[in-house]
Write a structure and sequence with these properties.
This protein has a single domain, classed as AhpD-like. Helix 2 packs across helix 8, helix 3 packs across helix 5 and helix 3 packs parallel to helix 8. Helix content is 71%, strand content 0%. It is built from eight helices and no strands.
Length: 178
């Protein structure tokens, strides 16, 4: 399995990350689609090739091709939205918040999977990208759809773990390349 191979890339000093990955893979508070979509969307959001490759191979064995595509789309659209809306939130001049964004976001209307799953992945990617405004917005939608705090937390734990594993592997790859 590609996750086993991914874990071999995690050095001993980051053993906690490997243990967290193992625990999250056996998490049952999310459906398989929600869980694997969160892993995949976060891997794409961070963009470390080895992590993306291994998580995508593992996810493709569990979720549909449509869910794979939608989870990648969540990473893509949140990459856009998180920068734009985080900037609006951080800027002191609130005039920009009143302006039409003028950015295409059609995928939000029809993501190709259950809206709740897409919202969960969008929340996880927003955590990776540190957009508090987007995290609040997606969390509110999820809670309105009766997604529990424990389920939201599971998506955030996946985001944190994928981000940390990606950072370690990126650093280790850079060291071996130099």
């Amino acid at each position: 399995m590609s996750i086993d191979t991914l874990q071999t890339l995690i050095p001993a000093y980051a053993r906690d990350l490997s243990l967290n990955l193992t625990n999250l893979l056996s998490e049952t508070v999310l459906s398989d689609q929600q869980k694997w979509g969160a892993f995949l969307s976060c891997a794409h959001a961070v963009g470390v090739p080895a992590v993306v490759r291994h998580i995508e191979a593992a996810a493709a064995q569990v979720i549909t091709p449509e869910a794979v595509t939608a989870s990648k789309a969540a990473a893509a659209i949140m990459g856009l939205n998180n920068v734009y809306f985080r900037a609006l939130h951080l800027m002191q001049n609130k005039e920009y918040e009143k302006m039409r964004a003028g950015l295409r976001m059609n995928i939000l209307a029809n993501p190709g999977v259950d809206k709740v799953d897409f919202e969960l992945w969008s929340l996880a990617v927003s955590a990776v990208n540190a957009c508090g405004l987007c995290m609040d917005s997606h969390e509110k939608v999820l809670r309105n759809h009766e997604v529990t705090a424990v389920q939201v937390q599971a998506a955030l734990r996946i985001a944190a773990t994928v981000n940390a594993i990606s950072a370690v592997i990126r650093a280790e790859t850079a060291l071996t390349a130099s």
